[in-house]
Amino acid sequence: MDDDTIAALSTPVGIAGIALIRVSGKNTLGIINNIVERIPKKIIPKRAYHAFIVNESKRVDECVVTLYKKPNSYTGEDVAEISIHSNPFIIEEVLDLILRNNARGALPGEFTYRAFKNRKIDLIQAESVNELINANSKYYASMKFDNLEGKLSELIKKLRANLIKLGIKIETIIEFEEDQFLEEIDIIDEIQKSSKIIEKILLNSRFTEVLNKGLSIVVAGKVNVGKSSLFNLLLMEDRSITSHTPGTTRDFIRERVYINGLPFEITDVAGIDKVIKDSVEQEGIKRTYEKIKKSDAVVFMLDASRELDETDLKIFKTIKDKQRLIVINKIDIANRNILKKIRSNFEKEKIYEISVKENINIDVVFSFLNGLVNNIKNRDINFIVNQRQKELLKRLEGFLRPLVKMSKTKESNAEIIAEEIRSAIKVIAELTGNISSDEILNGIFSEFCVGK
Ligand SMILES: Nc1nc2c(ncn2[C@@H]2O[C@H](COP(=O)(O)OP(=O)(O)OP(=O)(O)O)[C@@H](O)[C@H]2O)c(=O)[nH]1
Ligand SMILES: [Mg+2]
User: Fold this and answer.
1) Can you give the pLDDT at residue 262?
2) What's the pTM?
3) How far apart are CA 228 and CA 239, in angstroms?
4) Is residue 311 lining ligand 1, measured as CB closer than 6 Å?
5) Does one domain contain both 203 and 235?
């Protein structure tokens, strides 16, 4: 099956200037010769040829064909990239024609799978192809591109080379029962350096997930303070119903917005009321507390026109350990005494006065959100890993740390060190895909789209 020649559309189906069909495998050249007219018999690889697709001697479309010869192609096999006009009927006809000429439709991710199998890329790089395509923010995409280029793979490769060097040294010690211990301090230092970087990757991985998923922000406060009004303003559309009737929002509404190039998931929740009228409201409030608990940060809203009450204090309690922005809304109709009382109740907190309705001081909300983004961006994140990589790196780190420590003490047992090295190398092989079960590989590549 891995011998079949495969073909698929690599661009989305739809109406556009160009659609690109990819063909890979040993029949590629034969297919091109059969279905493309006005292309020379001797095609020079990596050169674009303007020609025509013919079906039973009728021209179907004009095209640009580029041929890549094995092994200098994406998959490592003969590959042709055929650009045609992007019209669903033309695409279907050309694909059909290719499939009738000794090829079959590619499975999801099959081109990349072949690239991996033919050692054009390792498993980390293969995964990053898909992660790059599906990235939800500019930063995440850029980090994933680094992985695709092989930055993380390089680190791992270097570590592996050093582990092997050290392993050989240790085996010699064991073999000849030499009692002098490791002078190869350079290698150990190098391994320690790699181990430190891995530690940092693991430490940062909590933040890097946010770069893709988005920071979750909840706008919280008692009923009718103006939460939905702020939510709509952040979204720049009237997404949530606002009204002077308390309890307008009964369930939560979540939307994604981009601020500073990073995605945010902003949630508008049901306002919390002193008296709960019915079970729907009860459920809404339960969800509100759940959302607050799960959020990365909270905008806590108070009302400048109504007395501070126990509901405000109760909500405040739930956000005490959260990153938060506290705002007093409706400053346009504020009551001086109420403002004073609020401030005296939250003496230790920084509180901003705003009016969503009159657009007063709304900048503080944007600054708060920007600040959250900058906290992440400034973290000196140099690698991003996915869940699979994270788990393996954790295991690897578990072998490296004692290994470095043991290697630096004179009394260490060479046999044990040798064993740690072997285990570490095995984890690396899993990471790069040198040893991976079919189940794991299927799991990874089936997530891809067809044509990639
Ligand atoms: N004067 C004034 N009114 C405001 C301001 N912000 C919101 N409002 C009004 O306050 C009322 C309640 O606003 P909402 O945004 O629905 O408040 P909410 O907190 O979502 O309310 P619930 O969903 O019922 O908990 C509406 O009539 C808004 O027009 C403001 O800054 N000043
Ligand atoms: Mg509301």
Assistant:
1) 82
2) 0.75
3) 8
4) no
5) no
